Amino acid sequence: MTPTNNLKGALLSLAAFTVYASHDVIIRYLGGIYAPMQVLFFASLLSFPLLTLMMITSDEQARLRPIHPWWVAARSLTMVLGGICGFYAFSALPMAQVYSILFTVPLLITLIAIPVLGERVGIHRAGAVVLGLVGVLIVVRPGAEPLSLGHIAGLCAALCVATQSVIARRIGNEESQVVMMLYPFAAIFITMSIALAFNYKPMPLFDFAAIGAVAVMGFIAAFLLVGAYRSGEAAIVAPMQYSQIVWATIYGAMFFDEFPDEQTLIGAGVIILSGIYIVVREAAAGNSANTPVLRNRTRAIAPGGFRISTHLRRRPKPKSET
Fold first, then answer.
1. Is residue 227, in this structure, part of any structural domain at all?
2. Residue 228 is part of which domain span?
């Protein structure tokens, strides 16, 4: 990769996470009015036509029967639970705190990849994981403040995102794109439909349009990330996700009168440094057989998103074929 390509990849990734941060502002607004199950149901429902169009235009052979049904079921379950917990965390906590907790995903991927992928983690990455967990304690500050349901939901969302990423790394090369996308969406649709019977609240047109914006923005941000990973090296593109803490500070102050305190910023800084170090160690030759963090390219709690690694395997047709 040339420096120009890496710069393009970094800029596209920054744009993607700017869109995601704006997407999360809407979730934060809606979460103050509606149950997370209702928001997740309609966001998933409105994003499904976009994802269906993408699957129809794919040149991949459609295969609906999973090769690894139990892994697909586990991944679907974590996507349902992760979506609910992620949406709830944004409604219950300041945005900067939610991002700080979600930034632990690379640390959790590193740990989960040991039993699931057989990844061998040396002292450097193990030390980075421990440092990152210290950062979480700084942000959550157990004992100094009550551990709220929002904190638990944020940690649960991070664990679910990490788990589904490792599962996708394990089975993604064998399962079809249709299986990897359709089963989780079916699980979300069915479970949220049942929950909606107990949590539904009538929505004005403005709020319904806001949910539509969440679906479209998740889709747009995912395509920006596809362009970013096609242009630049993963080790350059991946750390751009941490720019969301800047947007959390700006948007939190602008829209919700939220100002991150010193401990949140210090803890977020520790978590970010540990995450970047893990990325650097994985990118170094011979330090990781599976590179699970570098291959975690999809922001899993965005309903309009799709599995970016699958899309990256599809190459544009040469001009002679178009």
1. yes
2. 3-314
| Confidence tier at 70 by pLDDT (50, 70, 90) | very high
**Average pLDDT of the segment spanning 232-250:** 91
Give the CA distances from residue 303 to residues 20, 164, 181, 213, 288, in Å, rounded to whole numbers and listed in that order.
11, 14, 11, 11, 30
> How many domains does the chain contain in total?
1
| CA gap 158, 310 in Å, rounded | 22
Nearest in space to 165 (alpha carbons), one of 307, 266, 2, 5: 307
Judge whether residue 252 has pLDDT over 80: yes
Q: Does 11 map to a domain?
A: yes
Q: Tell me: the pLDDT tens digits for 169-218?
A: 898 888 877 788 888 888 888 899 999 888 899 999 999 999 999 988 98
Give the Cα separation of 249 and 266 in Å (integer).
14
Residue 202 included in any domain: yes
Specify if 262 maps to a domain: yes
Nearest to 106 by CA among 129, 81, 134, 138: 129
